[in-house]
Write a structure and sequence with these properties.
- The structure is a single chain.
- By secondary structure, this protein is of the alpha/beta class.
- It has 20 helices and 15 strands.
- Helix 13 (314-326) links the parallel strand 9 (308-310) and strand 10 (331-333).
């Protein structure tokens, strides 16, 4: 098997759609001679013409020089047949996401290219092991999963199947770096890294919507308030509900019906109704201009003079710093086993996953509310009030949150609220991926920050908090819903065991 570098050697890209054209562009910009091939007559020529327009735009903006743009175009040739590119050292296929179509193409490539040529696939979900099955040299098949738009997105998942030779994966890893990408190694399992770990970002939002805990606008606002660039509802509208639902179904079925990945009735209804998001003009929101959210809560911001900051840790420190700006005489009680704010008659507690009504049952004679995990310094923050609480307390809670610098979002008393349950489940899925050898913790963090622009990686979030907090939230979810969906990864459970 080959051990030499691929740098500067000819590249064949099959499929002249958005992904294939983007791959051809980055390869050519990195100095490779590139062959672009498409089965559809004229598609490769059209893609090259469009690329010229793209490069002209970059020249006009001063991002590349005219000479570099011309050199990039000159490196890209159109292959009328696979035989035209028989000297390619690596072929990257970006055709339709269909197992048999890709297998057929790989067989054709194996018949044309040299025995030491790498056969790479841009599949986002199909098993690399299955794609290589039946080939004469299956060890040279590797996943090279780019993200759209290819020239801008840094991540490349380098995916190894059971047949893949480690040298091939390492060569593609190095090649990706020379193309200006950040590669991460992944084992071929359903969803690879990103599409697997990201499922809870959509799934928890869809669960909250199914329970009518809050609106799509409010779900998105809370997660944007935690630092995500887009909320899950607007992101699903952008991706297309048909596409997002299909990926969820694929991961669910490939995992033999594992309840962690169960699709949502809410999303299925949108798909059945043709409400696919931006491309159809309506999904969770209406387009071209999304529906305006409700009026922002602009009530008073106030804290009582006898307020106490409870608990220890990062959130308690932040609360105390903000409280003393309003109440300089506020005191702190680090002995309290929970984090939050309190008076003699009320408790505003950082969610530990348990619903407010359960906490109120143990806090006899006190009004109780819970607030979501504040991952950012400001923005929308969800809270819920125990059903036993007085009206005066219901009016007071949002004033406390505004005094802390947040925009309060009242929601139903669902366990884990919005951010805490979503982030905990993302961490949990990443922990299982590491446990099963899909990736390393560092690979998971790089994949999620670079592949889907999360504000932090799952293990970075874990380092900022505690394993016990994550386990507590997931156990509370399981106590409410009872089933296989909310089960703590053994990887986390072992690290949370203090015995």
């Amino acid at each position: 098997m080959m051990s030499g570098r691929l740098q500067g050697r000819p590249v064949l890209v099959i499929g002249a759609g958005i992904m294939g054209a983007g791959i051809a562009q980055v390869a050519a910009q990195a100095g490779h001679p590139v062959w672009l091939h498409d089965m559809r007559e004229g598609a490769a020529d059209q893609a090259k013409d469009k690329l010229k327009s793209t490069l002209d735009g970059l020249v006009a903006k001063g991002r590349v020089t005219a000479a570099d743009a011309e050199a990039t175009l000159q490196r890209i040739g159109v292959a009328r047949s696979l035989e035209d590119a028989r000297d390619a050292a690596i072929a990257v296929e970006a055709i339709v996401e269909n197992l048999e179509a890709k297998r057929g193409l790989l067989r054709d490539l194996e018949a044309v290219l040299a025995d030491d040529a790498v056969l790479a696939t841009n599949t986002s979900s199909i098993s690399i092991t299955a794609l290589a099955n039946g080939l004469r040299r299956p060890e040279r098949v590797v996943g090279m999963h780019f993200f759209n738009p290819v020239p801008l997105m840094k991540l490349v998942e380098v995916v190894s199947g059971l047949h893949t030779d480690r040298t091939v994966a390492d060569d593609v890893f190095s090649l990706s770096r020379t193309w200006g990408k950040v590669p991460v190694h992944a084992r071929s399992t359903p969803g690879f890294i990103v599409n697997r770990i990201a499922r809870p970002f959509y799934a928890e939002a869809l669960m909250l919507l199914q329970e009518q805990a809050l609106s799509p606008h409010e779900v998105d606002a809370c997660l944007r308030g935690a630092g995500f660039r887009m909320g899950p509802c607007e992101l699903m509208d952008l991706i297309g509900h048909d596409t997002n639902f299909a990926v969820t179904m694929s991961v669910y079925e490939a995992n033999f019906g594992d309840k962690r990945f169960v699709p949502s009735l809410v999303q299925r209804e949108l798909v059945d109704g043709g409400l696919l998001g931006r491309k159809t003009g309506r999904g969770f929101f209406s387009y071209p201009v999304p529906e305006a959210p409700g009026a922002v809560d602009t009530g008073p911001a106030a804290l009582p003079p006898d307020i106490v900051v409870c608990g220890e840790g990062r959130v308690a420190d932040m609360l105390f710093d903000r409280v003393v700006r309003h109440v300089p005489t506020a005191r702190r009680d680090g002995a309290t086993p929970w984090t939050g704010l309190a008076t003699a008659t009320s408790q505003l507690r950082l969610t530990d996953g348990a619903p407010a009504f359960e906490l109120a049952a143990a806090a006899v004679g006190q009004d109780v509310a819970v607030f979501d995990r504040p991952l950012a310094a400001s923005g929308h923050l969800a809270y819920a009030v125990a059903r036993s609480a007085s009206q005066a307390w219901r009016d007071e809670v949002p004033a406390w949150l505004r005094a802390l610098g947040y925009i309060p979002v009242l929601m139903a008393d669902a366990p884990g609220l919005v951010v805490a349950r979503t982030v905990s489940m993302l961490i949990n899925e990443a922990a299982d991926a590491v446990l099963q050898g899909v990736c390393t913790p560092e690979g998971a963090d790089a994949a999620m920050t670079l592949g889907v622009n999360y504000p932090a990686g799952p293990f970075e979030w874990l380092a900022e908090g505690s394993v016990e907090d994550v386990i507590g939230v997931i156990d509370a979810l399981d106590a409410t819903y009872r089933g296989e969906r909310y089960r703590v990864s053994p990887w986390l459970r072992r690290r949370g065991d203090k015995t």
